[in-house]
Amino acid sequence: MKTSILYISPNGTTRTTAQMLADAFRQYKHEVHLVNIGKSPYREDPKLILEQCKQSDLVGFGSAAYHMNMLDPMLNLFSLMTAQNQSFSFKAFFFVNFGGITTGKTFLRCAHIFQKMNIPIVGALKVLAPHFHHPQPFPTQETRTTIRSFVDQLEIANFASMSNQQIKQQFKPYTPKTHLIFPFIHLIGKTRELPIEIDHQACIKCGKCIRECPLGAIQQSDIVSIDFDKCIHCYHCAIACPQDAIHCPVEKLDAMMQSNIKIIGMEQPGNQYYLSRS
Ligand SMILES: Cc1cc2nc3c(=O)[nH]c(=O)nc-3n(C[C@H](O)[C@H](O)[C@H](O)COP(=O)(O)O)c2cc1C
Question: How do residues 69-101 score in pLDDT, each as one tens digit?
Fold first, then answer.
């Protein structure tokens, strides 16, 4: 079976999940292609990703959850797929790493797009992951077990498709609160993005932030600058900079996440998968 695992992971935990999924599928003798859609050449040419999908029997789409949603590059890829008006013959699953607040309506929204395209959905996985500011170990043993079990169960079910009714029932947000206030909280999250500033005195133009930005939003001419139309405020540049020349108040981000947890609560369980019940 040809399996592609596509992912976007600013701070690396979704990449680890993708790698673990790839290892598990390889043990079932899948020919696995692991694709970071945030990196060259896929970032510059998303059509290459569609080519990769067309050559696959099974495609896993993985993203970190930011602002209760999948990240823009993944959503843009879905838009490109719908806009192309082509038919695809692979089956799909989704996976999301999230900070414990909520995955929002991520799965349901993704599922609707795929239902429109008549792409069968075989399952979804969510993984609780620490935010970069928290040095908790990742993955935990529980994470490993969940990921492994997800792949085992997909194999046992022979990649049976979820019915429309199952998708509607199983992919619903965990708290009715989230369900009600989703657009509102999503907007608040976006408007509370923290400023990112470059200290041009400290910057040595090493290019690390440019190479590592998951959106290709940083460029260098005389000075290094960020294109805030593309930036998703993942703050990976600030973490990656060896000179501490990129500043953002990450402690405020922590406070923001804590206050979101107070408003919405923590989504339980953290690690979980959804499969066809047939
Ligand atoms: C700007 C921003 C927004 C976030 N929004 C959410 C969210 O809505 N729900 C959530 O549970 N976690 C949220 N997180 C936490 C990330 O989902 C979590 O850190 C995840 O592990 C990141 O995956 P990565 O390591 O692949 O980048 C957010 C993090 C950032 C920086």
Answer: 899 889 999 999 999 878 899 999 999 999 988
Q: Whole-model pTM? A: 0.93
The residues pairing with 97 across neighbouring beta strands, listed in sequence order, are: 64, 127
Following CA atoms 255, 256, 258, 263 in sequence, which dihedral angle do they give, to the nearest 10 degrees? 140
Mutate which of 36, 61, 131 to test ligand 1's pocket (most atoms within 8 Å of Cβ)?
131
How far apart CA 52 and CA 56 sit, in angstroms, is 7
pLDDT in tens, 178-201: 666 667 767 777 777 888 999 999
256 assigned to some structural domain: no
Position 209 in a domain: yes
- Residue 131 counted as domain residue: yes
**CA 257 to centroid of ligand 1, rounded, Å:** 9
Instruction: Say how many C-beta atoms besides its own lie within 10 A of residue 262's C-beta.
Output: 8
